[in-house]
Amino acid sequence: MLVRSRRGPFVAGLVLVVLTAPSRAQETCPALFAGGLAPVLTNAKLAARTVPLCFEAFAVLHSGVTRTPLYSAEHLTRASVANARTVARDDAFHEETRLPDAERASLEDYVRSGFDRGHLAPAGDMPTLSAQAESFSLANIVPQNRVLNRGLWADIEEGTRRLASRRGALFVVTGVIFSGDSVQQIKGGVLVPTQLFKALYDPASGEAGAYLARNDDSRDWRAVSIDDLTREAGIDVFPSLPAAARASAMALPDPRAAARADEHRPRHEPSWQDWLSRELNRAVRKFLRDLLRSIF
Q1: Residue 137 has what DSSP assignment?
Q2: What is the pLDDT of residue 262?
Q3: For residue 234, how far is the Cα from the chain centroid?
Q4: pTM (2 decimals)?
Q5: Lower CB density within 10 Å: C or N end of the chain?
């Protein structure tokens, strides 16, 4: 069930820049952040009840107010992208037990919600099976329009991977924006972002920029500078960047180019051996996950 809730003051607060509040995430996994510095929240309400979480290949800042991540951070390299292409996708969405029950999303919240469970740090970026399994934590998931998730956003994710392969390394921060005089929510009080962004920084060239897309089926997107993104999102995604790199957006790959390239890529038809291997891997991971939860 989808609920539309009037939250004018809350959403207005999300987009006003009123406070600089660095995340505690930089204390735990600095290698995932440009210059070792985590994104900085510039809004008091956005910073309320946040919990930084580190995973094998990404970090998130989770909000107990929205019950979603506010951003994910990754360090993509040519090697990590190559490794990720060898990992078969195995959907295993699960609740994040490191978060308080009252502040996290549940699997039930997304049932018949009308939205996809959209990754911030994509499963397709994950260089190992264990990292991919972690990416299906609901702490890394937001309610995403199905057309956007399976179309334009998937193309942006693939274009980002290809750019990381060409350039050697990129720092990537993916996040959400809540704007307007109302905000939707699904069951459990999980808020629905109005926009999503993916910010890229090339440490070799010093260039940076961000994709910004509406969370709807319009396929509309635009490139923005890091300064513009900070003003719109209330998050300074790359606080260590010099002023010149923040002021102008780098030339970002056209997402449609990735889509056209995929149309001509030979497709692998899964065999029964692929299916059997995938099901065995899924069963083993579920057993280990349940065993660890029973112990700890």
Answers
A1: B
A2: 53
A3: 16
A4: 0.82
A5: C
